[in-house]
Every structure is written in C-alpha cells, then in structure tokens.
Task: inverse folding
C-alpha cells in the first residue's frame, strides 16, 4: 500500500508540476503586495473631497463604477469593476492622468492573472492543480514519519513535515475561496439598502466620512451593493457602504489567510515562507524522481552490457 501511495504522490506532482510552480512562484511575488501597500499608506493624505475632485475631472460623464487606490503608487484607477479594469489611472498628488499603471502595479497585475487563470482563461487547470496539491500533501503524510538526513530526500521530508499545517492550508483555502465558502453566517451578512443603487460619488462621500481614504484598497459594486476594502492595522477589512454609513462585513478567513493580509508583515512573511517551501518541495521532489530514473536506466544498461 505504501508503495502505491508513493507512486500516486510522485506522479501527481510530476503531472501538475508546471502549473503548481507557476502558482507558487506568482504567490511568492504577490505575498509582498499587502506589506508594500501597508508601508506606503500615509494616514490623512486622502479624503473624500480630493477623490471626488479627481473623479469629476477625469470621469465627467460619470461612467466609472469603481475606484482602486494604490498607496505605493499614489494613484487612483477609475474603472468599471474588479481591479478597476483597464481604466483611467490618475496621480493623486498632481491630479494628472498617467499613461497606465506603474511597472510595480503592472507586475502585480500580471502575477495575479497568472496565479488565477494562467493568463489563458485556464482557471479549471488552476483549480485542478490546487486540488492535486491537497491530495499530494495528504498522501505525503500517509507515507510515514520522516527520516531526516543530510540528503535531498531528507531535506524534502523535513520541510514537508516541519511546515505541514501552512503547506496544506495554502491550497485548501484556495479551494474554499473557489467554492465560495467564507465561514460567515448568513445572518451576519447585511442586505442591500432599499431604493436606487448608490452612485460612486455617494459611496466616496460615505466611505470618506466614516474612514480614512488613505487606507482604501478599492470601492466597487459587489453583490448588488457598494463595497469597500480598507487596510486597518495590517488587516484588509471589507465594508458594506450604504447611505446610512459603512458596516464591517464578517471576516472571510479563507481569503484573508490565502492572501496573507490579516496580520500585516507577519502574514505576508508567512506566505513568502510557504511559497518558497512549496517551490523547494517541488524542485527536490522532481530531482529525486529524475535521479532515480537515471540510476535505474544506468542499472539496466549495465545489465545489458554484462549480458
């Protein structure tokens, strides 16, 4: 049985090695984003009046439905939905439009696209690879306790067992996000306010009245109401925005854990460690398999030569 488990563990890792390497390489890069965003926040440097002025100047027709603020760029992006789309990028300090996102913002955007869909609308492959990762980890635990030695195999087992909870939670939280599981009870989720939907301008005023917009991540329609995400003490908090004010939404722990934005630099560092560990495990696992194949081939050639 152990031999069969080892074989399935090995071949799942080989089949899904490339998409998993892409997923965790981009995860490594994206791990730094929450930390960079938090460090760049300048409290009190952005208010509703300033944002309203910029929106009015660069979206006079009122077509924008979302605002994305990048603290590390000091820009807002006016768009139509998630991420601001390919909207208008405006420099907050000068008030002038930019040609596009900065190289850093563009890098994070490409990394996120690769991480979620491989940039080719292959979300199904990302989900399949994530599920395979969970199975690979579980099969690894069924192979028995590690034998820690000063070898590639020993280091492979040491890292796998030493970081086991973090390694399994990374793909598991991704699957929970994909399935829409948040662990928030329906009773805690506020319904959309009656009456006509809030305009973006109204949302900016309400959000700016209740919170410091310098810590805003985005403000956009979601689920029939206007939502806003803010950075508060290292945590990305989600708020429902209505004419009555902002209301904190229940925490979506799978998302917070997966994105590493619930404890500032600490959760970002956790994701860096997990990403490096999984990349190392994939690399050492492939090396162990390749070395074994080469050794077996050499043995076969030796037997033929002897015959």
Result:
């Amino acid at each position: 049985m152990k031999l069969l488990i080892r074989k399935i563990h090995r071949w799942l890792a080989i089949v899904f090695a490339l998409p998993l390497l892409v997923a965790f390489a981009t995860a490594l890069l994206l791990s730094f984003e929450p930390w960079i965003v938090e460090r760049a926040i300048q409290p009190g440097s952005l208010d509703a009046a300033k944002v309203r002025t910029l929106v009015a100047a660069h979206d006079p027709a009122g077509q924008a439905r979302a605002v994305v603020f990048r603290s590390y760029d000091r820009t807002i992006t006016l768009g139509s939905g998630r991420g601001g789309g390919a909207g208008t990028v405006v420099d907050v300090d000068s008030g002038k439009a930019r040609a596009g996102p900065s190289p850093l913002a563009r890098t994070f955007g490409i990394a996120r696209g690769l991480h979620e869909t491989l940039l080719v609308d292959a979300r199904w492959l990302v989900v399949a690879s994530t599920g395979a990762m969970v199975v690979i980890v579980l099969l690894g635990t069924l192979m028995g306790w590690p034998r820690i030695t000063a070898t590639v195999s020993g280091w492979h087992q040491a890292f796998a067992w030493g970081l086991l909870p973090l390694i399994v939670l990374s793909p598991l939280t991704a699957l929970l996000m994909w399935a829409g599981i948040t662990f928030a009870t329906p009773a805690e989720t506020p319904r959309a306010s009656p009456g006509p939907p809030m305009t973006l301008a109204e949302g900016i005023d309400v959000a700016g009245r209740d919170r410091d917009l310098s810590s805003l991540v985005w403000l956009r329609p979601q689920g029939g109401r206007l939502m806003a995400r803010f950075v508060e003490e290292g945590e990305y908090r989600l708020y429902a925005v209505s004419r009555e004010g902002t209301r904190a939404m229940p925490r979506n722990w799978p998302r917070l854990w997966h994105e590493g934005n619930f404890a500032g630099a600490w959760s970002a560092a956790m994701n860096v460690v997990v990403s490096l560990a999984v990349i190392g495990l994939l690399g050492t696992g492939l090396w162990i398999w390749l070395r074994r194949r080469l050794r077996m081939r050499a043995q076969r050639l030796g037997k033929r030569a002897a015959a």
